[in-house]
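User: Here's a structure from my thesis project, written as structure tokens. My advisor, Dr. K., wants to see whether a designed sequence matches the one we expressed. Can you design one independently, without my sequence as a hint?
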């Protein structure tokens, strides 16, 4: 796996294929989109299911959401260990062509990973929720 492209964007996210959207609320808030080229999503579903061909489009969509769960799980552990308190909402399919636009105080980090199975796009727009600074300072400091 290698990083093919890395950028910061303020524009609305444009879906590339089959995407899962994860919302985060609390000390950290925002959204994360994991997006796979359609052919990549099918190959990943093959690997997850251990079959030659996925049984349905539904299996491919469920696989993208499960991949999102696995990727986000590692980040959640690291942030929790640093004292942040937040809720990660279950992934939902992101089916519209355009995603949420970043706000003036939150740019999105956009990463394209090239893998043996194809391209995977990660769009992360998170910010520290400043409405509760004393709570976070007390847990970290």
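Assistant: Designed independently from the structure alone:
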């Amino acid at each position: 796996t290698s990083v093919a492209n890395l950028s910061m964007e303020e524009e609305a996210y444009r879906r590339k294929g089959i995407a899962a959207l994860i919302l985060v609320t609390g000390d950290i808030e925002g959204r994360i989109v994991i997006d796979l080229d359609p052919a990549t999503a099918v190959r990943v579903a093959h690997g997850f299911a251990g079959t030659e061909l996925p049984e349905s489009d539904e299996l491919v969509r469920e696989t993208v959401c499960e991949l999102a769960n696995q990727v986000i799980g590692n980040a959640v552990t690291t942030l929790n260990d640093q004292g942040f308190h937040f809720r990660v909402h279950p992934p939902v399919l992101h089916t519209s062509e355009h995603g949420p636009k970043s706000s003036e105080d939150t740019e999105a980090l956009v990463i394209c990973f090239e893998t043996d199975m194809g391209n995977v796009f990660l769009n992360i727009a998170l910010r520290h929720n400043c409405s509760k600074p004393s709570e976070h300072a007390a847990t970290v400091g």
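When you compare it with your expressed construct, this may help: Helices lie at 38-49, 57-81, 133-140.
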